[in-house]
Amino acid sequence: MVLFLWLFAASVLCVCQCQELDFPPGFQFGVGSSSYQVEGGWNVSDKAESIWDRYILENPDGIRNRSTGKMACNSYRLWQRDIDMVAEMGLDFYRFSISWPRILPTGFSNRISEDGKNYYNNLINGLLEKGIQPVVTIYHWDLPQRLQNLGGWTNPLIADWFVDYARVLFTLYGDRVKTWHTINEPWIICDFGYVFLPPAISDYAVGRLLCNKHVLLAHAKAWRLYDTEFRPKYNGQIAIVNQLTWIEPAGQGDEDIAELAFQDTIGRYTYPIFSKEGGWPQRIQKIIAKKSKEEGYDFSRLPDFTQEEVELIRGTYDFFGMNHYTSRIVRKRRNDETIHTYILQGSRELEIVFETRPEWKNTSSVWFKEFPQGFRRILQWVKRSFGDIKIYVTENGYASDSSSLEDYNRISYLRSYLEQMLLAIKEDGINVLGYTVWTLMDNFEWIDGYHSKFGLYYVNFECPNRTRTPRLSAKYYASVAKSHSLNIPDQDKYIVDKSCCIFSIYTFIPRLFGNGLTTALNEAIILMHL
Ligand code: PNW
User: Which alpha helices (DSSP H) does 174-325 contain, by range?
Assistant: First the structure.
């Protein structure tokens, strides 16, 4: 009798726990990549040079092991295999980007490349034939070098050049592509492109902030073009994609600078679009205006928006696209302390320093430590800042320096981050509609070359045909997508360290039934797991 009751209670708990781990109906799973990181074919046919092609040519030592993206994963030739991989995992969508200099060899819309056009047509049609939605990023960092020579993102005319390019894409592919991302991570494009990433123009003070204004205008004009001319025909959705890092106070008294740090890293690229009033985050605007004056400028280094521009940019979104990887703690700069300009080390403008906590696990990327709770907290920040908005997680994934196919660390990262996202959805009522693993396969990880591997699929870069092999994480993710749940069959296959099960059960069950009643049963179930 006692045994029967125990079994009954355990199965009730299990049903509840299993449902708690289910994703909402309609939730979508996908995987991502970007043109320069996977395509190769850097000079085939009439493709023109991008700022990454040029940087690699002129600064071979700027990239780890002097690697290049000339061949990368050779997706320019192997796109059919890429489609098969997404299909093997049974995913809903594939996020990839289009190379501007491949489609428009002059940089302008006066000439469309036949080969470039066909390449993306084949990719899009191939995906649709397998029931996979193409999600297309219009710009993921590979600017035509010719436009760079004309000032790139610091030239205000780029907003119109970008719109012309976007019009070409909407016209060519809008009948089949229903989700568009205008620009990937403008923060990286400007705040690092005007420091050390291509075009690697050293102009932190002014160039970086001109770029900031113009990426917003380019995005907004492209959104408005889609909204007025293409949405009525094609009924798709379009938004910008930002990189969001969770930042928390290092200690008591640092709360205010934590919010300021958000306004500087994320706010300059989101407030003008997503806030009710539009325009720059006001505190940042004041700080930069004051500093500019002290530095002897006749203008604020953060360029003003006209009222017309504020209105042009405000509200240009159909959802909030967010990439999330890591977290930081923030404190004020100590006297005589230098703030390093490498990614996520601090803000020279605000004189604040970012650090990580020692208990956060390392990955193979210097900027990237693991802190899953930061994911839920940054999702809460988005809701607090911009209200109940539709969110797509457009990138999240794990960097490793190992080629191993048994990538338990990646699985553990994905599971714990997905769990935090699920808590945000179920407990905090945050409207996350889709999730994208970065990345489909190991690829050219920018200045880190091929050292950091983010792939669900391993790519053999020694081999001319760039053989792709699924890692265990690909099978894990396929199983999550298929089960539409974190409660998947054969869980044990994916876990080396079983202590994570305790974490999982302890987070869900006590919240369901209260601690008292379930403690004994929890422990029994944990023992069964072990
Ligand atoms: C993104 N950070 O970059 C890019 O969109 C991808 O192309 C890239 O491969 C991927 O993330 C992994 O690096 C990031 O400092 C660069 O938090 C820096 C950060 C996050 C994302």
Answer: 186-191, 207-225, 231-234, 255-262, 268-274, 282-294, 307-313
